[in-house]
Amino acid sequence: MFNKRAIVVTLAGLNLLLLTALIIIAEPTPAAHAQAGPGGRGYLCATASVTGQEYEVLYILDMGGRRLYSLGPTNPQSGKLEYFGVRDLKQDFRNEGAAAPTPP
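Structure (tokenized):
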């Protein structure tokens, strides 16, 4: 019948053929222009865990407006983010003793 060498060579050739077909038909990935386009500059996003909760809060820093927005799920099963609040960082850094916001 077939020997092992012939089967291995055939499978290797088939793999090369499939790889070539994949390269030919694969579309190039779109270029990522994160914060490079007009209107998208000056923002920074970060997440942080909340003590005693099973979710994380999303913080969006508006560097131009010097504001910190916080969003998170009040119902983690829904997957929807809700607005928790905003901090005026210019005001906060003038009053260094101001308390940090706490999510609900």
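The two ends are 72 Å apart (CA to CA). The chain has a mean pLDDT of 81.
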